[in-house]
Amino acid sequence: MPAQSEKQARLFRLVRGVQKGDVKPSSVSPQVRKMAKTIKPGSVKDFTKVKEIINRLKEDDTAKGVGSEYTLSKAKEITDKPFDQVLRENVGVPFDQKELLTFQSKQKGFAGFGQTNFIHKRSTREVSADVQSNDSTKKFVFKKLTNNQNKGFYNYACFVRIVSDDSDEPTDKVFYVLSSMFEDEDGTKKTKILADFIDRINSYGL
């Protein structure tokens, strides 16, 4: 069952990191080490997701219908283009200071880890994070894109590359997710949309 709060989810992400070997036991509290030894990995994984976020996703999907941008079936896969080409074709506009602070506030617990560093690259107008585990390497790239169908509106986008190091079946997959539309002038609304968007990406367990 999912966690009841983001704080609880962060705790279980640390526990899962210890179980997978991604987080050193010496870097966490005795409580986390004990939980990693006594709780089944499958149960720990369930608690890395937040109940409120998952319920909100379900409600949004029901309200928006089949064509919803967000679905619980995770992101849309890109199979006909390499990751670098996808990034080049989707040219973003600059993030402002409030948006960058929103990314900073979401670094703890992102992608199931205790601390993930979001790197802002001004030259490419993107915020990225690299996450490595025992069996895969993941790159998350966030951009703010102009909405081509609606002048004056924007979408946040997250492009994800997942490279599996599994010797039996190595894979290299590319996914993307778009946020709902927003107007750039509405600072409070857009940072709320961005915070929710990062939580949604986290809830997918990519």
Provide a quick synopsis of the model:
The protein has 206 residues and is α+β, with helices and mostly antiparallel strands.
Description of the molecule:
- By secondary structure, the protein is α+β, with helices and mostly antiparallel strands.
- It folds into 2 domains: 1-49, no CATH class; 69-204, Porin, CATH 2.40.160.
- It is built from 7 helices and 7 strands.
- Strands 1, 2, 3, 4, 5, 6 and 7 form a 7-stranded antiparallel beta sheet that branches.
- Strand 2 (119-121) and strand 3 form a beta hairpin.
- Helix 1 crosses helix 2 (30-38).
- The longest helix has 18 residues, at 187-204.
- The protein starts with 5 loop residues before the first helix and ends with a helix.
- The model is unreliable at 60-73 (pLDDT under 50).
Topology:
Layout: H1 6-20, H2 30-38, H3 41-46, H4 51-64, E1 76-78, H5 83-89, H6 97-105, E2 119-121, E3 126-132, E4 136-146, E5 153-164, E6 171-178, E7 182-183, H7 187-204
Antiparallel strand pairs: 1-6, 2-3, 3-4, 4-5, 5-6, 5-7
Helix pairs in contact: 1-2, 6-7
Q: Indicate the CATH topology of the largest domain.
A: Porin
| Secondary-structure element order, N to C | HHHHEHHEEEEEEH
Helices, by number, come to 7
**Strand count:** 7
Class from helix and strand fractions: alpha+beta
- Outline the biggest β-sheet: 7 strands, antiparallel
Q: How many domains, as an integer?
A: 2
Uncertain runs: 60-73
Whole-number mean pLDDT: 78
**What radius of gyration results from the CA coordinates?**
17 Å
Gap between N and C termini, in Å?
A: 18 Å
Indicate the overall shape: globular
Can you give the helix content as a percent range? 25-40%
CATH class of the largest domain: Mainly Beta
CATH structural architecture of the largest domain? Beta Barrel
SS strand fraction: 15-25%
